[in-house]
Each structure stands twice: as C-alpha cells, then as structure tokens.
C-alpha cells in the first residue's frame, strides 16, 4: 500500500472512529437492566448513559430524563463524561490537521516534509482521542462489573449490565487508534533525504581546459 493510500485508509478509519465515539457519547445505553436470574422479567427496561436515563416499556414507549445535577453524579460518570468530551475535541482537531497533512490534498504541497509532519501530528491526535475513549468506556464498564458482582441485597435481575454504547465505544477507540497509527506511518525523514538527493547537481563529465 502506497503512502497516499495508507494515509487515506487511516484517515477514513479514524474518522469512522470519531463518529462512533460521538454516537457512544450521546447514547443512553451505557448500562441497562439485567435479565439474569430466575425471577420474572419485568415489562420495563431501564437504560442509563452519561447524560440521561431512559425507561423503555414493552409497548415500545420510551421516556428519558436528563441528569438533573452534575455534582450529584457518581465519580465514574463525571470522569467518563470529561474523557469523552476530551476525546471528541482531540478527534475534531485531528480531522482538521490530518486533512492539511495528507498527500492527497493540495494544501501545503510545496513543502512535503512539513506536510508529512502535519499528518503525523493528526495521527497522534487520533491516537490520543482513541485512548481517551478507551479509558472512559473501560472505567464505566469496570464500575458496572463491580456493582453487578458485589454482595448486595438487590436481586440480580434488578442490577445493571453492559449496554450497547460500551461496545460502540470500544469499537470507536480501536478505529481511532488504528487510523492514527496509519497516519503516523508518514516518514518526513525519508522525504527530506529524497529532496536533498534531487537537489544535488548532476556530475559534470566535461573537462575544462585552460
């Protein structure tokens, strides 16, 4: 795969990861009601996310309510919120920076070394964005797992388990880091050597006579 094709594939993967991270951040299915156990399954399913909690009835009606207070939220929710916001900001800047640095764009093509460095910077931003998404989702999943398996008087079918947004977030983190890694494969050092080689004058074969 050539350098331009590799950069384009990395950019598309990272862009898909950023869109998936945005979807995971706004989805309310970070944790959902568990139907484990032998008790009768209720007709109402509960979902909770970073910004709202929802109740879905068997009739198809869904009612959602935004979290009333930020300071009253649990620590892992506040931390996951902050990490997802940072991840989306890093990914947004990575999208802009990578477009400038990619070989298939016309911006700054007169200086390919600087252009490659900009592409690498965009890749680093995507990798950092993916790491923030991975940290946010993993932290939330760890808390859900702890609350599910800890000893409590709450019946097991009334506890929470992983929601679909967590799996979307893990996929988004993987795509962002993969795309960022492909963008980081741009090597400005080689291009600099190639430029210096092209700038060297060809050896002269004619002899000068006095």
TrEMBL record:
InterPro entries: Claudin, Claudin_CS, PMP22/EMP/MP20/Claudin. One of its GO terms (molecular function) is structural molecule activity. It holds the Pfam family PMP22_Claudin. It comes from the Eukaryota. It is a multi-pass membrane protein. Keywords: Cell junction, Cell membrane, Membrane, Tight junction, Transmembrane, Transmembrane helix. It comes from Anthoscopus minutus (Southern penduline-tit). GO terms for cellular component: bicellular tight junction; plasma membrane. Belongs to the claudin family. Claudins function as major constituents of the tight junction complexes that regulate the permeability of epithelia. This is Claudin. It is found in: Cell junction, Tight junction; Cell membrane. The keyword Cell membrane applies. The chain crosses the membrane at residues 82-102, 118-142, 162-189.
């Amino acid at each position: 795969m050539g350098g331009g094709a590799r950069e384009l594939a990395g950019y598309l993967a990272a862009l898909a990861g950023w869109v998936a991270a945005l979807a995971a951040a706004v989805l309310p299915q970070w944790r959902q009601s568990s139907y484990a156990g032998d008790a009768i399954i209720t007709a109402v399913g509960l979902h909770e996310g970073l910004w709202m909690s929802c109740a879905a009835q068997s009739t198809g009606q869904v009612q959602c309510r935004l979290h009333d207070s930020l300071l009253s939220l649990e620590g892992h929710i506040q931390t996951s919120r902050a990490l997802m916001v940072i991840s989306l900001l890093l990914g947004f800047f990575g999208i802009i920076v990578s477009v400038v640095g990619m070989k298939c764009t016309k911006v700054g093509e007169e200086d390919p070394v600087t252009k490659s460095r900009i592409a690498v910077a965009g890749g680093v931003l995507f990798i950092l964005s993916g790491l923030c998404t991975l940290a946010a989702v993993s932290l939330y999943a760890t808390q859900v797992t702890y609350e599910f398996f800890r000893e409590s008087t709450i019946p097991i079918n009334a506890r929470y388990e992983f929601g679909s947004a967590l799996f979307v977030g893990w996929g988004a983190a993987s795509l962002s880091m993969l795309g960022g890694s492909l963008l980081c494969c741009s090597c400005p050092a080689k291009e600099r050597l190639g430029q210096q080689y092209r700038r060297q004058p060809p050896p002269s074969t004619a002899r000068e006579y006095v």
